[in-house]
Design goal:
This protein is an alpha+beta fold. The protein has one domain (about 20-275). The chain is built from 9 helices and 6 strands; from the N terminus they run βββααααααβββααα. The protein has helices at about 20-40, 45-70, 75-80, 85, 95-110, 115-140, 170-190, 200-215, 240-275, and strands at about 1-5, 10, 15, 145-150, 155, 165-170. A 4-stranded mixed beta sheet has the order 1-5-6-4. Strand 2 (about 10) and strand 3 form a beta hairpin. Helix 2 packs across helix 5. The longest helix has about 40 residues, at about 240-275.
């Protein structure tokens, strides 16, 4: 098991240097560089990649916060008023972020700067798991997603900082590790000549089922002195689990599109080969 690691927030004048924020920024920079390099390799204009990534990420943050407030913690509006909406740094839903990223990418590549959507979105998606490692690493360092008690060998011992908690799942840590695995798969497949959209489908198939299962490990028990806000459940599932179902369905639709393109390309190749003979 892992020990509980606590990294304090450092103050540089009026700027708070917290581990989550620093890792998220690092992930954004790394992801941007990976997307830029892959875009160049694919013959795309680097300006379209850089600007598109920026709009996509900003949209992801805005919608991620909105879903965090409206779907998970509507009580924040009663407690804080309108400030709960515009303080986008105060809470973030990953699936809200995914929704925002889709909206942002469509807005940029289909409205603001019309480009081949699938070609550009696939490049952005290829870079995403590498950046997500840092985002979930930040969640792991600040222990945003404490789960149920367990004796799993990758769990975290919370007792030294939170007496009575014991050894528990740390879902942010698990996602960080799993994002490393997805990144390794993407890197291994980087030279495959697949139609644009393949990495979008692959992300949906790899991420959604695992995240769906991880949400069943969320903490539900009450411990004196350790506050717990119960998770919102819709028909027994968290909003993220419903998002997983939608994501998997979207991945299936994208996969069928990619497979259809591959089949058409193979048919054209056979015709051309027949004509050449």
């Amino acid at each position: 098991m892992f020990p509980y690691i606590h990294i304090p927030v450092y103050h540089l004048g009026p700027i708070d240097l917290d581990p989550w924020g620093l890792l998220v920024i690092s992930g954004f920079v790394l992801g941007l560089e990976i997307a830029r390099a892959r875009g160049l390799a694919k013959g795309l204009d680097v300006r379209d990649i850089v600007d598109g990534v920026t709009v996509t990420v900003l949209s992801g943050f805005v919608f991620g916060h909105l879903v965090h407030v409206l779907a998970y913690h509507p009580e924040m509006i009663d407690q804080q008023g309108f400030a709960a909406i515009y303080r986008i740094w105060a809470g973030f839903s990953s699936f809200g972020g995914f929704l925002g990223a889709v909206i942002g990418s469509v807005l940029f590549y289909k409205v603001i700067r019309k480009r081949d959507y699938w070609a550009h979105a696939d490049v952005v998606m290829y870079a995403f798991p590498f950046a997500w490692i840092f985002g979930r690493g930040g969640c792991a360092l600040v222990h945003d997603h404490i789960g149920r008690p367990t004796d799993f060998f990758l769990a975290v011992n919370f007792d030294n900082m939170m007496p009575g908690m014991g050894v528990r799942h740390d879902l942010g840590l698990y996602e960080c590790f799993y994002s490393m695995f997805i990144s390794a798969v993407f890197f291994a497949l980087r030279k495959k000549q697949w139609p644009a959209g393949a990495f979008l489908a692959l992300w949906c198939f790899l991420y959604a089922p695992v995240r769906f299962c991880l949400d069943f490990l969320r903490r539900v028990d009450q411990i004196p002195g350790v506050p717990l806000t119960p998770d919102v459940r819709w028909a027994g599932l968290t909003p993220a689990q419903w998002g997983c179902l939608v994501m998997f369905g979207a991945g299936t639709a994208i996969f069928l599109r990619v497979r259809g393109q591959m089949a058409r390309a193979a048919a054209v190749g056979k015709v051309e080969a027949g004509g050449a003979s």
